[in-house]
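User: Hey, quick favor. My workstation is busy. Could you predict this chain's structure for me?
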Amino acid sequence: MNLHLNDKVAIVTGASRGIGRSIAQILAAEGMRLVVVSRSQHTLNEVAESSPVETLAVATDLRDPDAPAAVVAAALARFGQIDLLVNNAGATKRGDFLTLPDADWMDGFALKFYGAMRLCRAAWPYLLKSQGSIVNIVGIGGRTGSDEFTIGGSVNAALLNLTKSLADRGVRDGIRVNAINPGAIVTDRLQSRLQSYASLHGIDQAAAPALMAQSFGLARFGNPDEIAHMVAFLASPLSGFCQGSIIDIDGGQTRTL
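Assistant: No problem, here it is.
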């Protein structure tokens, strides 16, 4: 299927591993030129070197208030345009609400919410020019509260609301803004949880994925490419009537309306 993305330019944050890396690879396979962003120059260089398209690696910490504008400036200096912004960066700390300090809360919002917000604001004039789009990678915790995920759930809920708000503005400006809520996806972060699960329940690590998925009410865990293919679809003209859409890709874990 031709998604009509060839030669367009995408900024992908959190692109050095996991879901972000898969997004970069799938977009590159569709012919998009890339600006890949994370804090790790070494792993970003690996992404860029293996990419079949022209790729700019920008190592920066998006918690720095000046970093998002610098990423946008670097993209424009290299490619002269921006057609897609994928906000994927950001992980939040799990734990007991009563013991999580303010610093963890501020750090959780600093990268995933404020980094995304500032990138949207900096890229907006250029997305307006290209009639481009934004895809926010958020998470099902923003829809369903959990006592061990108070920071992440709050950050995700805020980012989902920002998605809806910017989509409202985007109707007027011709910029499509949508979000994806991944569920349990097989990444390094999930592997750490699987190790803890196996240890807690005294089971073999090889058996942990199926048993842990079953405990979530799932047939299996998801793969990063399953998120990445949806990003490509949302970036394409084929999804032209998607505006403010929030898509759960979670194997049925979210059962509420």
